Structures are given as structure tokens and as C-alpha cells.
Fold:
Amino acid sequence: MTSELPFAYGGAVLRGILRAQPEDFCVTEIQPITPEGSGEHAWLWVRKRGANTDWVAKGLARFAGVKPMDVSYAGQKDRHAVTEQAFTVHLPGRESPDWSQLDLEGVTVVSHSRHNRKLKRGALQGNVFEITLREVSGDAARAQVVLEQIRSQGVPNYFGEQRFGLGGGNVERARKLFAGQRCDRATRSLLISAARSHLFNAVLHERVVQGSWNQPLEGEVWCLNGSHAWFGPEVFSDDLRARLAAGDIHPSGPLWGRGRLRSSDAALTLEQTTLAPFEDLRNGLEHVGLEQDRRALRLIPHALNWEWLDTATLRLRFALPSGAYATTVLREVVDWAAGDASHAVG
Structure:
């Protein structure tokens, strides 16, 4: 359970309500691609409120008269939120329909163009978040200090609770999958990701406990900031020290799969010792064909700012790279409860 993971700064100093309404959790996708203006694919910039991304994609397919597989998007966005993101619709040899006539609850096509390729999953730089917490109580002065620490030093880059399902049950379901239980392709992918994320969080847990989540161990492998690229191990030098302090690189942990761990010395020992009890998950991930990869242990929000709208309402703005979780940032300062954004559709 992510609620049991250790904190970097001693634990949340505020309590509040998150997602009292969808507008309290706004997400805007950072797209590295600019539509070319021509091509077989309609390129749509879509605003959705209280709607599941896959449900929106199916609605766009129905409206355009194409198969669901002909609609693509770069990443899933929160349902209980107001979000903006790109979709592509494959329309070879066809004009686009009148997107202004789309009748899909909570969904607006803000702009549209054409492009010569479909969007691929993961084809985004990150997301910008604007999050409003309500009925906030606690030590506001201490919260200011913690937020400033987060802005300069970052937070442990845990996989968020969304990855693990209700009550963290996806990890146990992954064990059953690896033991031979069948499920559909989408569920299978979800459970495999949960198992891999669980192992990463276990290693990060130990690094936070020992205070090395943002500091190098001997034999460290480094991740480049905002990238999936990594390098090392190599001798810790003044250059690496400066890059670590500047947030250009981060210590890393394993995303389990086939092959040997790339770390060495103290980092390797910690990873092997921590993951030894999870033989079933490790073997399962290797059996499905995943290869060893790495993920940054540290997450530094970009352009983190905050303001008190009144004495009980706190608004935060920041950007995160693809694959990072806003709730991972929030948990370091706010112990939040879910509000009533239950009028979502899809």
C-alpha cells in the first residue's frame, strides 16, 4: 500500500479534501508533437470533464464512424478531473467530420488539424497540474517549509496508488496471473505493470529509510532528468555531484525484467537484498518477456508554485514528466481524502 511508504520530509503536515469537484484537479498534456496540417489522421485537442480517456476515445470513434482501434492517444488521464490532451483519428481518404457537433457528455474538441501519423502511447513529455485542496487544516507555516524543500530537492518518485488498484489488490492479482490464471489483454498489462511497480517501490522504500533516495550509493546507475535514458555505474565525480545538485541526473532503481541488474557494489547489494523475498513476481516478470530497465528514484516538480485562496483552500501548480504521479508530490505535504467528484461519466 502506498500509504505505508516512508516520507522524505517526516510526513504530511496538512489535511484536506482532493477532488471536491473535477475542476479541483486540472491536467494539461505537454505534447512534443505539432500537427503537420495534412495527413491521414485527424489531430484533436480535447478537453474532458469527469470522463475516462478510453471512453472518450470510443465516443470519438463512434462519431467518426471508425473502429475504436483507429483512435489513439498518448496517455490515460485522470477521470475525476478536467483534462486536456491530444487524440488522433485515422481517416484515410476521408474528410474530418464536423467536430463541433460531437455530442459526448463532458467532452469538447477545442481544436483540430491533420497529421500524417497516429499518436503512440507514451508520446508525451509530461503533464501540467493545477490542483486545489479544500477544507485544509494543519500547520501552514510548516507546509511552506516542506513545499520549498520539495521545490528544491524533489520527492521520492514512487509509483502512485492508481497503479495498484483498489486496496492495492493488483499485486495479488498479478501473482495469480503469473501462477496461470487467465485474463484479458488489457487486465494482463495492468497487472504486469503493478507487479513491476511494486518491486520498484520496495527498493525506493529502502532508499528513503536509509536517506539515499536523492544521494548516490557506490555502484549507482544514473537516470537523466525527464528522460528514460540511464548510464553507469561509474565513479562518483565532481561533475556527477554538480549534475545531481542541479537536478540533471537522479539515482535510479530497477524496473524488473530479464537480464542482470546494472548496478554494482552497495547499490546492487541493496537491490538484491530488498527484492529477494519477491521471487514469484521477479520470475513472473521475466517469464512474460520484460527486460531490465531503470527509473529515477527522485522526482523534482518543475515550476512548483502554490497559493492560499483563503485560509482553508490551497492551490498548487507544477509540471511532471511522463510516468510521474501528482499524488506522489501531494502526499509529502497533505494527507488528503477524496471528495465527491462522483458525477463522472464513462
User: Anything to note?
Assistant: The chain has three domains: 2-23+126-151+301-338, 33-115, 155-299. The longest strand covers residues 126-138. The radius of gyration is 21 Å. The chain has eight helices and 16 strands.
